[in-house]
Amino acid sequence: MSDLRNQTEQDINELLKVRRTKLADLQENGKDPFQVMKYEVSHHTDEIINGFEELEGKVVSLAGRIMTKRVMGKASFCHIRDLKGDIQAYVKRDEIGDESYADFKKYDMGDIVGIEGEVFKTKTGEISVKANKVTLLCKSLQILPEKFHGLKDTDTRYRQRYVDLIVNPEVRDTFIKRSLIIREIRNYLDAKNFIEVETPVLVPNAGGAAARPFDTHHNALDQDIHLRISLELYLKRLIVGGLERVYEIGRVFRNEGLSVRHNPEFTLLELYQAYTDYYGMMDLVEDLFRHVANKVLGTTTVTYEGVEIDLSKPFTRMTMVDAVKKYANVDFDQVPDEAAAKALADEHKIEYEERHKKGDILNLFFETYVEEHLIQPTFIMDHPIEISPLAKKKPENPDYTERFELFITKREMANAFSELNDPLDQRKRFEAQEALRAAGDDEANQMDEDFLNALEYGMPPTGGIGIGIDRLVMLLTDSSAIRDVLLFPTMKSLN
How, if at all, do strands 195-196 and 245-253 pair? Predict the structure, then answer.
């Protein structure tokens, strides 16, 4: 096996040398492809194929990468791939001239070329372009993955996304859809009079979520700062300032592990609307998901990992207590206190920490028994106060809050509150979080005096929601891992 690997490496090194020799020859003959400044493209491949009836017999110019090449004496065929797809080019010596044809025969797979020629259909019925001019626009000095096996190793695909995009068209389609999804989210919110804003990425206090931040130091200010873990607290300040509907789509950073659902940096949408509550947020997110699916996919029925997800039906609404009662057969309305909750956890072999309260134990039951059942869109409502430091209490039951999480395909897709706007209650919640931090919970929220000061000026009743863009893209592109929808996911350095 070692000898075979060494031979393969030697063969590759020889092929790489040949490509560099070809480049040197081109440069020596005044044909340096890296000196080509521009090329006028009249059509993309899909426009030629879909518009064949109008374009047949007409001259077009396109540019793309050579993916296959077949030389047959005085005539050759190659397939060119551009942003929109692949098309065949027919290159004949009598059409482009002896010198140009001799150059073309030396071109390699991966080289980027411009093709000018007439649109026609071959005897086998394949729509093609008969070249009257071929221009080398860029010489590829690397070797594309072998045609039939392609680039399959996931680690290499993520590290070298540029190669992945070249050889796997479905990957390119995923990221084009991602762009369309974000565009339609903006269109939807803009049409509802939301204002898109930008808030700081480097912050003195990383609050708004239960997560460990990345820490750094600002030399000029001689101050420790953090990368934001949420967008929440700054957006709420804007609600205080009178911007009644605001949203931001931006990167947030959480110093946590990697999994199919988690990447340390990811894209979050957060929006806040004055004079509404978490019921208003339920209506909005349900309508938003349908709108985006319809605009991007043309349907509200999504197939994810072989399961059909119907976004057209009203999303199920269920309290966390009722969900645990249904799937774990444990009624937390009948659990009197923390000690009883921990006894139940022991009985069900659920691990917990000494600092955990009754509400924390309820959430552990939910995670253990309920999440795996939440395939179709489901709002899980009324979370315990212990795990919801920024949400309003339910007036009729202050142990719980006006909060929901949206679950689809067993994954949390959104998190929303009737936002806590009582500065005195918020201070007590922060103090409780600080106590947890002192007890060793480095994901607990920190006291934010400036945010409390903002609340003291008065924040109207407000509904807010956070939506993980990456997970939404996963759903709408049938992608099983978050890395499949991030162009450059976080990877361990090879050095």
Answer: parallel
Dist. CA 210–CA 428, nearest whole Å: 17
Q: How far apart are CA 35 and CA 46, in angstroms?
A: 28
- The C-alpha atoms of residue 165 and residue 109 are separated, in whole angstroms, by 15
Q: Domain boundaries in the chain?
A: 2-144, 167-315+377-485
**Residue for token pair 């659990």:** 335
Beta strand 223-227 pairing with 245-253:
unpaired
Taking the C-alpha atoms of 134, 135, 139 and 143 in order, what is their torsion angle to the nearest 10 degrees?
-20
Say what the pLDDT of residue 145 is.
Answer: 85
Rounded CA-CA distance 333/325 in Å is 9
CATH H-level, domain 2-144: superfamily:
Nucleic acid-binding proteins (2.40.50.140)
Domains 2-144 and 167-315+377-485 equal at CATH topology level: no
- DSSP sequence for 343-410: HHHHHTT----TT--HHHHHHHHIIIIIGGG--S-EEEE--BGGG-TTBPEETTEEEEESEEEEEETT
| Per-residue DSSP letter, 39 | -
Separation between Cα atoms, residue 32 and residue 16, nearest integer Å: 18
* Better-predicted residue by pLDDT, 32 or 7: 32
Looking at residue 156, its pLDDT comes to 87
- Mean per-residue pLDDT over the chain, rounded: 95
Confidence at 151, pLDDT banded by 50, 70, 90:
low
Both tokens of residue 51?
A: 């518009």
The single-letter code of the amino acid at 416 is A
| pLDDT tens-digit map of 25-76 | 999 999 999 999 999 999 999 999 999 999 999 999 999 999 999 999 899 9
Contacts of 47 (CB under 8 A, 6+ apart): 55, 84
DSSP character string of 114-168? EEEEEEEE-TT--EEEEEEEEEEEE---S-PPPTTT-S--HHHHHHTHHHHHHH-
Specify the pairing of strand 215-218 against strand 202-203: unpaired
Distance of alpha carbon 255 from alpha carbon 257, whole angstroms: 7
Pick the CATH number of 167-315+377-485 from 3.40.50.150, 1.10.8.60, 3.30.930.10, 3.20.20.70: 3.30.930.10
Both tokens of 359, joined, read 């509400």
Of 216, 187, 180, residue with least CA distance to 201: 216
pTM above 0.90, yes or no: yes
- Is 4 a residue whose pLDDT tops 50? no
Cα separation, 350 vs 333, whole angstroms: 19
Please, are residues 293 and 476 in contact by the beta-carbon 8 Å criterion? yes
Higher pLDDT, 465 or 157: 465
